[in-house]
Amino acid sequence: MIRVLVADDEAMVRAGVRAVLSTADDLDVVAEAADGREAVEQALCHRPDVAVLDVRMPRLDGIEAGAQIRRHLPATGVVVLTTFGEDEYILRALGGGAAGFLVKSGEPEELIAGVRAVADGAAYLSPKVAARVVAHLSATGAAALAGRRAAARERVGALTVREREVLAHLGGGLSNGRIARRLHLAEGTVKAHVSSILARLGVDNRAAAAVVAHEAGIVPPVQAPPR
């Protein structure tokens, strides 16, 4: 059973997230919080597998709350919920150790898939979030966007064929174990590939690597939700 903490300053949103997650028989909401500081306190008390955090909350925003949770509970994965117009928060969250990025207006199945993926040690960017991050990073115009995509393809091109395959699946939200099964490799081999990929791309975490994968256009457009 995957234990989940839900934090949002709007009671109706918390109720909606809980209702969505309750439809999955492997997810259990063990705690709720109405602000970022309470989210950290509840996480320390209940030690959830995944913390689902709204970006904008009083006392402590979801980015800082997520970073504190990750510092104290490195085994707890963080999923950030955003709305349109909050792209700068996503970029901050990438640096804070968050592994999942979802929009509140997304499909319920995406929320369930994202929580499962992060609980399994994967990074998960919903397609809408990935597209927005790439666009935000290239906000200076079409030329900048083309330049970033070309730079991402060049960085990915420096990887081995196997590393590119691993990166594509990583960008699609798969954990090491699922990538190993998909590519018929030992999980330890996949872990070594991921470490090499992060170093060669010059990024700090799987979520940032997933952004590069999306920028380079190597993530399949249709992905089955991680189970």
UniProtKB/TrEMBL annotation:
Keywords: DNA-binding, Phosphoprotein, Transcription, Transcription regulation. Residues 152-217 form the HTH luxR-type domain. CDD domains: LuxR_C_like, REC_NarL-like. It comes from the Bacteria. PROSITE patterns: HTH_LUXR_1, HTH_LUXR_2, RESPONSE_REGULATORY. InterPro entries: CheY-like_superfamily, NreC/VraR/RcsB-like_REC, Sig_transdc_resp-reg_C-effctor, Sig_transdc_resp-reg_receiver, Tscrpt_reg_LuxR_C, WalR-like. The keyword Transmembrane helix does not apply. SMART domains: HTH_LUXR (SM00421), REC (SM00448). The keyword Acyltransferase does not apply. The modification 4-aspartylphosphate is found at residue 54. SUPFAM superfamilies: C-terminal effector domain of the bipartite response regulators (SSF46894), CheY-like (SSF52172). Residues 3-119 form the Response regulatory domain. It holds the Pfam family GerE. PANTHER family: TRANSCRIPTIONAL REGULATORY PROTEIN NARL-RELATED (PTHR43214:SF24), TWO-COMPONENT RESPONSE REGULATOR (PTHR43214). This is Response regulator transcription factor. It comes from Streptomyces thermolineatus.
